[in-house]
Amino acid sequence: MKFILLLLKKKIFSFNKQEMQITYSHPTTSDAEVLDKINRSCMPENYDVSDWRLILSLNGNISFVAKINNEIVGYCLCLSDNFLYEKCTIVSLAVLKDHRKLSIGTKLLLKCIVAVKNKNKSAIFTLQCRESNENALKLYKHLGFQVTGREVSYYNNPIEDGLILKRTI
Ligand SMILES: CC(C)(COP(=O)(O)OP(=O)(O)OC[C@H]1O[C@@H](n2cnc3c(N)ncnc32)[C@H](O)[C@@H]1OP(=O)(O)O)[C@@H](O)C(=O)NCCC(=O)NCCS
Question: For the segment 116-135, what is each residue's pLDDT rounded down to a tens digit?
Fold first, then answer.
C-alpha cells in the first residue's frame, strides 16, 4: 500500500512539473489585449490597448512573455531607443500573482538583456520603479541595476517618487 501511494505521489508530482512548464517567447501585436489585462491586474499605471499594439509593432521592441500551458502569465516590455540597441528601456514588467516567486520575473528581464547583448555587445538599460516596490527593486538590484536618480512625484494613484535604475552590459 505504502509503495502504491509513493508511486502515485511520484506520478502526480511529475504531472505537476509537466503542467508547470514555462516557456519564453517574443509577444506579437495579437497579444496586446492579454498584456493589457495582466498589466491592469498587477499595476496601478496602465496604458491604452492601442499603445500596447503600437509598442509591440515597433522595430526596437525586444520584449518577452512567459507562458504556462500556452497562456501568458507575465511579460517584460523592453524597447530600444534606436536601431543600434545602445539604449534600452524596460517599460514594464509584470507576472500574474498566482505565478510569482518562480523566477519568472527574473528570467523575463534576463531574456531581454541577453537578446540585446546578442544584437549589440554594450548597452545601457534604464527603468523606473516606485520607491515602495520592494519586490521589484530587489529583483532589479539582483540583476545588477543601480539606483541613479529620482523623479519626484513621478507616479500617480498614489502619488510617489520614481527611482531611476540603470544597468550597463
Ligand atoms: C516584480 C515582479 C515582476 C516579480 O516577479 P516574480 O516572477 O515573482 O519574480 P522572481 O520570482 O524572479 O523573483 C522574486 C522573488 O522571488 C524569489 N524566488 C524566485 N524563485 C523562487 C522560488 N522557487 N521559491 C521561492 N522564492 C523564489 C526571488 O529570489 C525573489 O526574491 P528576493 O527578491 O527575495 O530575492 C512581480 O512581483 C510583479 O508582477 N509585481 C507587480 C508588478 C510590478 O511591481 N512590476 C514592476 C514595476 S517597476
Answer: 999 888 899 999 999 999 99
159 three-state secondary structure? coil
The CATH homologous superfamily for domain 22-168 is Gcn5-related N-acetyltransferase (GNAT) (3.40.630.30)
Model confidence band, residue 19 (pLDDT cutoffs 50, 70, 90) = low
Please state the domain extents for the chain. Answer: 22-168
pLDDT at residue number 17: 47
Q: Which residue has the cell 528570467?
A: 107
Neighbour-count burial for 73-86, b at 16+ CB within 10 Å, e otherwise? bbbbbbbbeeeebe
Does the beta carbon of 34 sit less than 6 angstroms from any atom of ligand 1?
A: no
Q: Is the CB of 95 under 6 A from ligand 1?
A: yes
96 CA: nearest ligand 1 atom: 39
Is 65's pLDDT higher than 60?
Answer: yes
Tell whether ligand 1 has an atom less than 6 A from the beta carbon of residue 46: no
Is 168 a pocket residue for ligand 1 (Cβ < 6 Å)? no
**How far, in Å, from the CA of 8 to the mean position of ligand 1?**
31
pLDDT value for 121: 80
